[in-house]
Amino acid sequence: MASIDLAPPPAAAVDRAESIWSKLRYYAASHPLGVIGAIIMLVFVFAAAFAPWLTGYDPIGTNPRVALSPPSALHVFGADAMGRDIYARIVYGARISLAVGLGSTFLGSVFGVALGLASGYIGGWVDLVIQRIVDVLQAVPLLVLALVMAASLGPALDNTIVAIAIPLIPYTARVIRSNTLALREQPFVEAARAVGMSEFRIAVRHVLPNTIAPLIVIMTAQLGAAILTEASLSFLGLGVPEPHPSWGRMLSESAAEYVRTAPWLVIFPGVAISLAVFGTNLFGDALRDILDPRLRD
Amino acid sequence: MAGYLIRRFFLMLVTLFGISVLVFVMLRLVPGNIADILFDAAGLIDTADKAKLEHDLGIDRPIIVQYGNWVNGLAHGDLGYSYVSEKPALQEIAPRIPITAKLAGLALLFSVAFGVPLGVISAVRQNSALDYVLRVISLSGLSMPAFWLGLLILMACVAWFGTIPIYTDPPKGFWNTLYLYSIPAAAVGFRSSALVMRLTRSSMLEVLRQDYIRTARAKGASLRNVNYHHALRNALLPVVTVIGIEAAFLMGGLIVTETVFNIPGVARFLVEAIRWRDYPIVQNLVMFIAVVAVGMNFLIDVLYAVLDPRIRLSG
C-alpha cells in the first residue's frame, strides 16, 4: 500500500501534460502574430542547422564566369562580384547571424544578471559602484560602443560577439536589479533566512529563478537587436571578417554602386536580415504579453 | 526639485568621467597603433623612424600621462591633433557637427510627426484591423536595418528618377538643403517613428486603463473628449522621455545612413576615424556623442520635473 501512496497516479501526469499543450494552444490562438514570428524564427534555425543540405553551392567558393549574374535557374538569387552564389551565402549566413545573435545575447545576459543580482541583493556601496558602471555603459549609444569595442578587439567572429554583448549588459542589469529589489522583501526570502540558508544561496536559489520571466522577455528583444547590430558592424567593415558569409557584410562593399547595376545583391541579404529580426520581434512581443504580468489586462 | 536636479547633474558628471576613462583605455588596448598602420602601408621597417613617430605623437608615454594630457586639453578647449590630417581635431570635428545636427533634427521631426499620431490612433482603436496593420508596419520598421532602408530608397530613386540624390558638394540654398537632407532623414526617421509609435501606443493604453478615464466616461464625457483631452495629455508625458532614448537610437541610424548617402557628418567621420585608429578624433567624437546623449537625458529630466507635478513637488 505504501508504494501506491508514494507513486503519483499516472492519470495526473497525463493531465499535466495536457494542460501544458492546452495552455500553448490557448496562447497561440490569442497571439497569432507571435505564432508567425515563431515560424519565421524556426525557418532560420532550420536553414542554419541544415545549410549544406539546402544548397549545393559553396558559400565562399568563387567562380569568375558567373560574376554579377542576375537571378536564374542555376543561381536563384543571382551571384555576387566574385561569382559566389547569393542563395548559398544567405543560407550559410544564417549560421553567422544566429551564432553572433545568440552568443552575444547569452554573454550579455550572464554579465547583466550577475551585476543586477549583486546590485539589487547586496545593495549598499556594491549597488552604488555597479550602477555607475551601468550608467557609463548605457550612456554611449549601442552602435557607437559596439563599434569602438569591435575596433579595439580586432575583426573576428568571437570579438564581434563580445563587442555586441557589452552594450547589452546595462539594460539586463537594470531590470534584474529592480526585480531583485522587489523579491528581496518577499516572505519566502525571509523564510529561507530563518531556516539558516546562506545569503548567496538565497540569492541564487530563490531570487534568481524568479527573475527568469523578465529575463526571457529581455533576451528575445535583445536577440533582434544583436542580429541588427552585427549586420551594421559588418556593413561598416568592422564586424565579422571574410570569408564568413555575413548578411551585413554582403551589403557592404560598394553596395551603393550595385543599387544601380545589380540590385539583387542588395535586395536578398537585406530581406534575410529584416525577416529574421522581424520574426524575433513578433515572437518577443507575444512573449512579453504572456510573461509580463504588468502588461496583462 | 532643486535637490533632485543637483543630484542628477552630479551623477551626469560622474558618468561622463567614466565614459572618458572607458573610451581612452579601450582605444589603447588595441594591438597596433597608428605608427604600425602607417609603417605597414608605406612598407617601411626602420624601427628608429617608428620610435620617433611614436614619440612625436606622444603615444610612447605612460597611459595615465596620455589621459591626463587629454583631459587637461579638453578643459582648455584643445582636443589635440588628428593623426591622419595633422590638423587640430577641433577644426576637423566642428564643421561636421551642423551637418549631422540638421539630419538628426529632420529625422526627429519626421519620427514625432508620424509616430505620435499613429500611436494614439493605434491605442484608441486597440485590436482593430487598423491597430494590427500599424503595429506590423512599426515592427517591420524596427526590424529593417537603417542602411538597408537607405539602399532601398536609393534603388527607388534610380528606378523613378534615374539619379541618386547623393551628397557631393555642400548644398546651396534652403530648398536644396532640405531636398538633399530629407531623403536620408526619412531613412533614419522611419525607424525612430516606429519606436515613437510603439511607445506612444503603450503609454496611451496605460492611461486609458486608469480610473479617472472611467470616471470621465461615467460622467458622460464624449469618447472623443476623453481620448483626446483626458488621456492624450497624460500619455504624452512619458513620450517626452522617448526623445532622450531617441538621441542614442538615432545615432546608430545616422552612422550607417551617413555612410550610405555619403554625407560628411560626424557619424560617418567616427567610422572613418576608427578605421584609421585616429585616437584623438575617435576619443573626442565618442566623448562629444556621449555629452550630447547624457546632456539630452539630463534636459529631459529637467523638463519632466517641470511638467510633472508629482516630481516637482516631491523632490
Anisotropy-based shape of chain A? elongated
- Mean pLDDT across all amino acids of chain B: 82
User: Major beta sheet of chain A, specifics?
Assistant: none
Share in β-strands of chain A: under 5%
Order of helices and strands of chain A: HHHHHHHHHHHHHH
Task: Give the oligomeric state of the chains in this entry, treating copies of one chain as homo and distinct chains as hetero.
Answer: heterodimer
Content-based structural category of chain A: mainly alpha
Q: In angstroms, what separates the terminal alpha carbons of chain A? A: 47 Å
Low-pLDDT windows of residues of chain A:
1-9
| CA radius of gyration of chain B | 24 Å
Largest beta-sheet characterization of chain B: none
What class would the helix/strand composition of chain B place it in?
A: mainly alpha
Largest interface: A-B, 49 and 56 residues
Instruction: Name the helicity range of chain B.
Output: over 70%
Indicate the topology.
The complex is a heterodimer of chains A (297) and B (315).
Chain A: H1 2-6, H2 10-30, H3 32-49, H4 51-54, H5 86-122, H6 124-139, H7 142-153, H8 157-184, H9 187-194, H10 199-207, H11 212-235, H12 247-250, H13 255-261, H14 264-291
Helix pairs in contact in A: 3-5, 3-14, 5-6, 5-8, 5-11, 5-14, 6-8, 7-8, 8-11, 9-10, 11-14
Chain B: H1 2-28, H2 34-42, H3 47-57, H4 63-75, H5 89-93, H6 97-124, H7 129-143, H8 146-161, H9 174-208, H10 211-218, H11 223-260, H12 266-275, H13 279-307, H14 309-314
Helix pairs in contact in B: 1-13, 6-7, 6-9, 6-11, 7-9, 8-9, 8-11, 9-11, 11-12, 11-13, 12-13
